[in-house]
Design brief:
By secondary structure, this protein is mostly helical. Helices cover 80% and strands 0% of the residues. The radius of gyration is 21 Å and the shape is globular. The protein starts with 16 loop residues before the first helix and ends with a helix.
Length: 440
C-alpha cells in the first residue's frame, strides 16, 4: 500500500474492523494509564505524601516537598518528548510505545511498593523522586504515539474521529482515580489508609499495564512508518529537524493544546481546592461533580471526533475555544451561589466546551505535521503545553491572592487559555497541507 509522507492512504484501503478496534484500544488504554497516573499521584501528594515521605519536616514544608515531587514529572516531560519523539520517528511508533508504557506502568506500580521514610530514611523520598522522573520521561512520549498509531492507519477524512478516541483516556483516568478515592475511605479506616491503603491505587497500575501491553503487542507498525523506512525518508535527528525547520508550527501546536490540557488543570485541580476552601463545598461533592463531568465526556468526545471528520479538527478546536471564552466568566459567577446543582452544571458546561478543543487536538496536530517529524513534533508540543498547564493552579492561586479571591479570577485564566487556543486553531486551519510538505 502506498502512503505519502503526510500520512494519506488510498481511499480504497482501510483497516479491518477488528484491526481498527485493536488499535483504538491500544491507544486508549495507554492514555488512560497516563491520566490515571497523574491524578493518583496528585491526590496522593495532597493527602499522604508529606507524612509518609517527609515526616521530619513541619506540615507546611512537608506539603511543599510533596508537591515538588509532583512537579518533577512536568519538568522532565519535555526531555521525555525529545527522547521518545526521536525514537518514534526513527525506530517506529509501535516499538516506542511499548517502551513508554512499560516504563510508565512499572514506575507507577513501584510507588505502591516503596518503603516509607520510617523504614529507610532519606532513601524513601529519593526513590519516590526517581520514580516520578521515570514517569515524567515516559509521559513525554506516550501521548503523541497513541495518537499516531490510530491516525496513521486511516485516510485523512476519518482522521478526526480516530484521533479523538485516544482522548477518552483522560476522563477514564479521572473516573478511575475518583472512584478509588471515594470507595477506599468507605472500606478502610483512616489508620489503614495511612498504613497501607494508599498503596492500592498505585498497584492498580500493574493490571492496567498488562492489558495495555497485550493490546499493543497485538498491533503492527503503522503503514506510514513502514513506507518512510522503505523509501528512506526518515530524518537523521527528527527532533532537531522539527525544531529547526518548523518552529512556528510547533508554537501553533502548543497554543492549540493549551485549553484542552490547561482546562483540566484548572477545573480538576485548582477548582476543587477553590471549591473546598473558598466556596465551602464538601470534598466528596466536588469529586462526584467531577466524575459526572468525566462520564459525560465518554459520550461527547467520540461525537466531537465525528464532527471533526466533517468540518476539520482545527475548526472543532476553534469552536471549543470560542465557546469556552463566552462562558468563562458567567460560569464562575454562578458558582458563587454554592449549590450542588450549580456545581454539577459548572463541571458539565465548563467541561463540554473545552472538551471540543481536547477532542480535536490530536487530529489538528496530525494535520499540521507530516510523517518524518510527526512523532517528535506532537510529543514536544504536547509536553510543553503540559508543563505550562502544570503551572496553572499555582498561577491561579497567585491571582486569587492578588484579587482577594474575587469571583472572576479563575475566569481570567480560562479566558486567556481560550484566546490563545482560538488564535492557534484559526492559524492551523489555514494550513491545507502538513508544514513539511508546504516547505518542500
Amino acid at each position: 500500500m502506498t502512503i505519502t509522507t503526510s500520512g494519506k492512504a488510498p481511499t480504497t484501503s482501510s483497516p479491518s474492523p477488528s484491526s481498527a478496534r485493536r488499535v483504538v484500544w491500544a491507544s486508549f488504554v495507554g492514555t488512560s494509564l497516563e491520566s490515571f497516573d497523574f491524578y493518583v499521584f496528585a491526590y496522593f501528594s495532597a493527602i499522604f505524601s508529606g507524612s509518609l515521605f517527609f515526616p521530619e519536616l513541619d506540615r507546611t514544608a512537608a506539603t511543599i516537598g510533596a508537591f515538588s515531587v509532583l512537579a518533577v514529572s512536568f519538568i522532565v516531560r519535555p526531555i521525555g518528548a525529545i527522547i521518545f519523539g526521536n525514537l518514534g520517528d526513527r525506530i517506529g511508533r509501535r516499538r516506542t510505545l511499548l517502551i513508554t508504557i512499560v516504563i510508565m506502568g512499572v514506575s507507577t506500580g513501584a510507588i505502591g511498593l516503596l518503603p516509607t521514610y520510617v523504614a529507610i530514611g532519606i532513601g524513601a523520598p529519593l526513590l519516590l523522586t526517581l520514580l516520578r522522573v521515570m514517569q515524567g520521561l515516559s509521559l513525554g512520549g506516550e501521548w503523541g504515539g497513541s495518537i499516531l498509531v490510530a491516525v496513521e492507519r486511516v485516510e485523512p477524512r476519518r482522521r478526526g474521529f480516530y484521533a479523538a478516541l485516544p482522548q477518552l483516556g483522560s476522563p477514564v483516568g479521572t473516573i478511575l482515580t475518583a472512584a478509588l478515592y471515594l470507595i477506599l475511605p468507605l472500606v478502610l479506616s483512616s489508620s489503614d489508609m495511612a498504613a497501607w491503603g494508599w498503596r492500592l491505587p498505585f498497584l492498580a497500575a500493574f493490571p492496567l499495564l498488562a492489558v495495555s501491553l497485550y493490546l499493543r503487542l497485538a498491533i503492527d507498525e503503522t503503514p506510514l512508518f513502514r513506507e518512510l523506512v522503505k523509501t528512506d525518508k526518515r530524518e537523521r535527528i527528527p527532533v532537531l529537524a522539527a525544531l529547526r525547520k518548523h518552529p512556528v508550527a510547533i508554537l501553533v501546536a502548543i497554543g492549540a493544546a493549551l485549553l484542552g490540557i490547561g482546562s483540566y488543570s484548572l477545573m480538576n485541580t485548582y477548582t476543587i481546592t477553590y471549591g473546598v476552601v473558598t466556596l465551602h463545598f464538601s470534598y466528596q461533592n466536588l469529586l462526584v461533580a467531577t466524575t459526572i463531568g468525566s462520564l459525560l465526556q465518554l459520550i461527547t468526545i467520540p461525537l466531537f471526533g465525528l464532527w471533526a471528520n466533517r468540518i476539520s479538527s482545527a475548526r472543532v478546536v476553534a469552536i471549543g475555544a470560542a465557546g469556552t471564552l463566552l462562558i468563562a466568566f458567567p460560569m464562575y459567577y454562578f458558582l458563587q451561589f454554592a449549590t450542588f446543582p450549580i456545581l454539577v452544571a459548572t463541571m458539565i458546561i465548563g467541561g463540554i466546551l473545552p472538551t471540543l478543543s481536547w477532542a480535536g487536538l490530536g487530529g489538528l496536530m496530525a494535520d499540521i505535521f507530516g510523517g518524518p517529524i510527526r512523532y517528535s513534533a506532537l510529543s514536544i508540543a504536547y509536553a510543553i503545553a503540559a508543563v505550562i498547564s502544570g503551572l496553572i493552579p499555582l498561577a491561579t492561586a497567585g491571582l486569587a491572592a492578588a484579587t482577594n479571591s474575587a469571583w472572576w479570577h479563575p475566569g481570567i485564566v480560562l479566558a486567556a487559555l481560550s484566546i490563545i487556543t482560538l488564535v492557534s486553531a484559526i492559524i492551523a486551519a489555514r494550513w491545507k497541507k502538513p508544514v513539511d510538505e508546504l516547505a518542500s
